[in-house]
Amino acid sequence: MIDRTTLEIMFRGIEYIAEKMGIVLRRCSMTPNIRDRMDLSCLVADSEGRIIAQAEHIPVHLGSMYVGMKNFLKYLKDNGIEVRRGDIFITNDPYIIGTHLNDIALIMPVFYNDDLVAWLVNKAHHVDVGGKYPGGLSLRARSLYDEGMVLEPTKIVSEGSLCREVLNNILSRVRMRRQTYSDIMAQIASLRSGERDLKELVDRYGLSRFRSCVEYSLDYCEKLARARLRELSFECHGFDYVEVNDHLCKIGVTIRIRGSLVDVVFDDTCRQIDRPFNSALGVTIASVSFVFKSLLLGDVPLNDGTYRILNVHADEGLLVNPVRPAPVGLGNVETSQRIVDALLNALSTVLEDVPAQSGGTMSNIVLHGLESGWVFYETIGCGAGAGLNYEGESGIHVYMTNTLNTPIEVIERTYPIRIVRYGLRHGSRGSGRWRGGDGIIRGYKVLERTMAIVIMDRVRIRPRGRRGGGDAEPGRVKVIRSSGIVEEYSGKVELILDRGEILIIETPGGGGYGSAT
Fold it and tell me: How far apart are CA 289 and CA 303, in angstroms?
């Protein structure tokens, strides 16, 4: 019998391994998107692919791995792929591993003596993954294969040796070969660091204790989650809309909580579309788990034990569970946010402490130099919604993202771009007894002819206040042409900027909570 104190120490040690993997990945990366923005995630799963522990990284990455690991192991089994010591697999297939093609996952088995004891996983957003459109995020994509190369699970390292043919095949299909190479190498280094640390932990406590710790952590997290929900029993319905240019796509959901079990049914949701706003099932599950983790489960760790209480029902062919090869690039970054708001809207009908809507968009910017071929990508923060007894934070990434804005110095040192404006968008917050947060204004001056792709939601529909609080200002996109003319665009646009022209992004604020009077 192992005492609970030792089990807890071991579990926290496993959590730290995931955190350290993220630190190694960030420090080894040479690209701003991973090194500076921290668009990466790491986790540890057991030999069966059950998530044991994850670092506090990107919600949309991590939540998708619950279904992603099961799909990955099924793919290996169905295709007769043997797993050996020293192997590392690579994949970005959203219909297997979740999210979108830019998020390349590396997955490594960990053997202790001759026993497979764990899997280590990291995901990192690569700025370009080939395909018809730079950055992999285009409004014109009509198929998954328009968005970039699709990597079904294959070995990038076999028994400790780098598979040069596989790597060179990947590098030959992207626009930024050197950056892609360095980031894949950083991901490999991260996994090998985790492997060393995990073996050291098993050395210290023994294989039997390690396996006991896995079962303890899963069972205990399930027990904690059930305890948090024990007093709740209700059914509620809510909806929201994804802005797809000239029309709105509805996401409607029913939530039932009975006997410490949660059923989430997407029963009033539009069908998948031939635009890249479809949400892979892994992203949908990630969005649901984010809401329940942040609103109801508090500090309960999120692992396979927690997921035992959560059932997500979405018919195939819906916007939130599309059928291959529907494009999904923007579903990961924008539809995921609307799923969160649909769930929060539903819960607000039965719970008082649901916050107002946040800016609720990742405000994606892709810039592609038409003369020298570079690709730049970042997301921009917005205003957070206010809640009962607190005001919303200003200029912060919300919901399914947890990244940073790229430092101005890094942008200007790396790309032919000058940041001519950066600050809070004062006055964009929703009013109320507790005010929402302000959005951000960011201005990009390009120093060569550039393609710009902007994907921002909450432009047509304002972020709503809650309990009498005021709505926030919607987002805006403007271009200052070399002639001095100022043009205003919708939140989802692709355009050409000539040398010296300026793209201005104004992100939405957060809604207010409670009446101001």
Answer: 10
